[in-house]
Amino acid sequence: MAVGFATATHRGSGDFEANITLVVIVSCILAANGGLMFGYDIGISGGVTSMPQFLKKFFPVVYKKTQEKGIESNYCKYDNQGLQLFTSSLYLAALTATFAASHTTRTLGRKVTMLIAGLFFIVGTVFNAAAMNLVMLIIGRILLGCGVGFANQAVPLFLSEIAPTRIRGALNILFQLNTTIGILFANLVNFGTAKISGGWGWRLSLGLAGVPALMLTLGSLIVVDTPNSLIARGKLEEGKAVLKRIRGVSNVEPEYLEIVEASRVASEVKHPMRNLLRRRNRPQLVIAVCMQIFQQFTGINAIMFYAPVLFNTVGFKSDASLYSAVITGAVNVLATLVSIYSVDRLGRRLLLLQAGVQMFLSQMVVAVVLGLKVKDHSESLTKGLALLVVVMVCTFVAAFAWSWGPLGWLIPSETFPLETRSAGQSVTVCVNMVFTFVIAQAFLSMLCHFKFGIFIFFSAWVSVMSVFVLFLLPETKNVPIEEMTNRVWSQHWYWRRFMDNDENGHA
Fold first, then answer.
1. With the CA atoms of 327, 331, 334 and 338 taken in that order, what torsion angle do they form, in degrees rounded to the nearest 10?
2. Residue 23 contacts by C-beta under 8 Å, 6 or more apart in sequence?
């Protein structure tokens, strides 16, 4: 079933004949449920760790500190390595799992890898919801982390490979959209379960992760694998048949031949990780690694992980802090829709540069307000200033959600050539999880020591990454995924030097 049409041109020009088919839309929506699970994991931890009964059971030292008035610094009430390990253990597991996921993505396909991710999510959810001690809780988070590693490896590749070129950005951002929906869903769940009497609301919060976990598992059984993956594994006829099905046209020969050629080149690579280090692959590798580091050093996960804790820190009461977290989650979803609409129209660079200015200014305002008004042992902000903090946090979240959030995953997934795509995505996920782990493990301690300076720290990084985008990030909108080298890297003022005089042969 087709709802649109793109004209065909000769092979090599990059504009292949393709309809926007129902099977592509449905497959992308189902696959993007990996983002829903990822987002739920991000959002649920912050709310749960602000629930008194959860803290009392697993982190009694933190619980005691939160109940003491005027003794502990406002900025240090939640500073506890065990509490941070609960959040960050997921990301440590994810960065380890991504290397196994790279192998399954390459040898078994994107579809099977997503199924494995869904199964990890389901088992991890059971452990968390039934946790009787900290060990069970951490085991559950580690299993969820394995699911994140496999899902974040397979889903962005799946979306980039199955989507028609002209809407590749929008469809790939479905992953990030579902991530933001997952965060919002988690915030709403926490807001509701925090009111449950009897102290078991946190179990329901953790247990409801089973909903997106089941959706991803069932979705992975329904979707078709990508033609690129099928052809790379020698299933040429099946790959061609799937290509016809997802493009909704009979003339897929130009695109099919280009994928076959890319697959032939990829098959000559015996050691993808070693090949990734070759000179001609350096631009994509540097871009992918820097995008992940910068994405985390915007400070977004510090806010999303610990939004309720953060709002409690600046003086909001428990319900008010959860309510504020719901607001930021809703802004996150709406702003991601802006990115879906604009990414293939305005391009990647413009969104990143505009957002850099917005994120810098909003974080500096928060730093000034907290620096002037929130002292170590003061009770709270005034109502007006508290509202200003929420507005500025929402302004920051909106800018991130239409820029570094989705584009941090989109750009690496669309720039690597087929022979290094799986390995490149593995490095992308690994670096992302390393720095997500670092931020999750360190944020509460940084908040305690830096105080309001934490926002100055992150805003300085926003300045650095904006300069990086201005000079070193090329525009990739409307460029077919198998033609990035010739049409992007070979034309860039700096990166083109790496396209010449490459080493002979394949690693």
1. 170
2. 1, 224, 245, 246
Alpha carbon separation from 3 to 25, 141, 223, 261 (Å, rounded):
10, 41, 19, 30
Question: What DSSP string runs through 400-467?
Answer: HHTTHHHHHHHHHHHHS-HHHHHHHHHHHHHHHHHHHHHHHHHHHHHHHHHTTHHHHHHHHHHHHHHH
Strand ranges for 188-335 from DSSP E: none
DSSP track, 100-123: HHHHHHHHT-HHHHHHHHHHHHHH
Q: Domain 22-498 belongs to what topology? A: Growth Hormone; Chain: A; (1.20.1250)
Instruction: Kindly calculate the radius of gyration of the chain based on its CA atoms and give it in whole angstroms.
Output: 23
Torsion of CA 427, 431, 433, 434, to 10 degrees: 130
Contact 75, 312 (CB under 8 A): no
Please, which pLDDT band fits residue 294 given cuts at 50, 70 and 90? very high
Q: How sure is the predictor about 139, in pLDDT bands with cuts at 50, 70 and 90?
A: very high
Question: Does 8 score more than 70 pLDDT?
Answer: no
User: What pLDDT is recorded for position 2?
Assistant: 35
Q: Which of 193, 283, 267, 277 is nearest to 233 (CA)?
A: 267
Q: What is the Cα–Cα distance from 208 to 202, expressed in whole angstroms?
A: 10
Which residues touch 467 (CB under 8 Å, ≥6 apart)? none
pTM of the model: 0.74
Grade residue 159 by pLDDT with cuts at 50, 70 and 90: confident
Spatial CA neighbour of 49 closest among 239, 236, 205 = 205
| Joined tokens for residue 188 | 């709403």
Q: Other CB atoms closer than 10 Å to residue 67's CB: what's the count? A: 13
CA-nearest of 440, 95, 93 to 299 is 440
Three-class DSSP category at 134: helix
